[in-house]
């Protein structure tokens, strides 16, 4: 059976996350350096395989002090665990645009299954003749499941950083 390889277009893709700060506002961040590829049966993305890797040192929340803290052993521990990886185990079509992506996510040396809701934007040729496919994915995880346990108690009760992390992913793939 013929397969088609797709490579991520990093200039038109964003791998982001949101986490509640002080229990009432969101802080957003993203990874600036990442790679991903998809393997499909022809142009049909049903049952596609996805592989992803992000350079944890490229984390950017718009605040250098916070980014540097995220790189320490309190959170990602980039010296020992420089990459976040994802390998899909299932990509199922629910409707023409809605899919469910399940895979193994590895953060800080811990691998756990995660489920993402994926919206397939479609396939089109760009003005230079490249065939592209677009996806938006969302999901959530508990950061403590991956050993990211640092926190601080607030005087008013609650904690500084939520355990729940929302994933917000928008990607374009280029047919190879």
UniProtKB/TrEMBL annotation:
SMART domains: YceI. InterPro entries: Lipid/polyisoprenoid-bd_YceI, TTHA0802/YceI-like_sf. SUPFAM superfamilies: YceI-like (SSF101874). Residues 5-174 form the Lipid/polyisoprenoid-binding YceI-like domain. Transmembrane segments: none annotated. This is Lipid/polyisoprenoid-binding YceI-like domain-containing protein. The lineage of its organism: Bacteria, Pseudomonadati, Bacteroidota, Flavobacteriia, Flavobacteriales.
């Amino acid at each position: 059976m013929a397969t088609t390889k797709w490579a991520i277009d990093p200039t038109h893709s964003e791998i982001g996350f949101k986490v509640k700060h002080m229990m009432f506002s969101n802080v957003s961040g993203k990874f600036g350096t990442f790679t991903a590829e998809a393997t499909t049966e022809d142009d049909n993305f049903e049952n596609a395989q996805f592989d992803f890797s992000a350079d944890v040192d490229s984390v950017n929340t718009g605040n250098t002090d916070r980014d540097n803290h995220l790189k320490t052993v309190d959170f990602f521990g980039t010296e020992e665990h420089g990459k976040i990886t994802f390998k899909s185990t299932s990509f199922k079509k629910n409707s023409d645009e809605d899919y469910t992506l399940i895979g193994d996510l590895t953060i800080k040396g811990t691998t756990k299954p995660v489920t993402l809701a994926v919206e397939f934007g479609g396939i089109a040729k760009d003005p230079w003749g490249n065939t592209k496919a677009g996806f938006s994915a969302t999901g959530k995880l508990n950061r403590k499941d991956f050993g990211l346990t640092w926190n601080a108690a607030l005087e008013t009760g609650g904690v500084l950083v939520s355990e729940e992390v929302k994933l917000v992913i928008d990607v374009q793939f280029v047919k190879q």
